[in-house]
Amino acid sequence: MGIKVVKFGGSSLADANQFRKVKEIVLADPARRYVVPSAPGKRSYKDEKITDLLYACARMAANGESIGEAFSQVTERYVDIAFELELAFDIMPVLDKVKADIENGAGPDYAASRGEYINGLLLAAYLGYDFVDAAQVICFDAAEEYDGECTVQRIKDMVKAHERAVVPGFYGALPDGSIKT
Questions:
Q1: Do 23 and 126 form a contact (C-beta atoms < 8 A)?
Q2: CA 101 → CA 17, 58, 110, 172, 180, distances in Å?
Q3: N or C: which end of the chain has fewer CB within 10 A?
Q4: How distant, in Å, are the alpha carbons of 19, 26, 39, 128, 165 from that of 8?
Q5: For the whole model, what pTM was predicted?
Q6: How far apart (Å, rounded) are the C-alpha atoms in residues 37 and 167?
Q7: pLDDT digits (tens, 9 = 90+) for 44-56
C-alpha cells in the first residue's frame, strides 16, 4: 500500500460540516495517512477567513490596540467546531496561549500560522491521528529561505515515527525555532 498525503484548503475546513466531509474522504482510502489542513476559510461571502482575522490581531497588537473583539471571532469559530464535532479536546488553553502570544508581540507570521495550527489540532483529534507541528518538519534557513534538504530529512523521520498524522500547512520554523510563513 502506498502513502497518500491529502491537503484540504480553508473552505474545505470552514465549519463542522466540512470537517465531517473531510473525515469521510480521508477514511475512504487507508493509504491517506497524512493530512495537511489550512485554517478555516469563509463559510459564506459575508464571512471572514480565520487567517485574515489573525493578521488583523497581529496588526492591532503591534499598534497597541486591543485584539479582544477580533480574537473573540477566532475563539468562537474554533469552539463551535469543537463543540459541534463533540470533541473531548479542550481548545481553550490553546486559544488563550495564542491570544497572549499575539498580545505580547509574537508577530504576523506566528499569528497567521496559528489558524492552521489550531485547525490541525482539532482535525487530528477528530480523525484520531497524531498531530505534528509543521514547525518541527518544515525548515527555513537563517536567511529565511526554505531549506529543502532539512525538510526532506525531517519529513522522512516524521513518517517513520507516525503511522498517521495531521501536519498543518503554510508555515515552518527558522533555525531559532521562530515561526516563518
A1: yes
A2: 30, 10, 9, 17, 15
A3: N
A4: 10, 10, 9, 17, 14
A5: 0.95
A6: 7
A7: 999 999 999 999 9
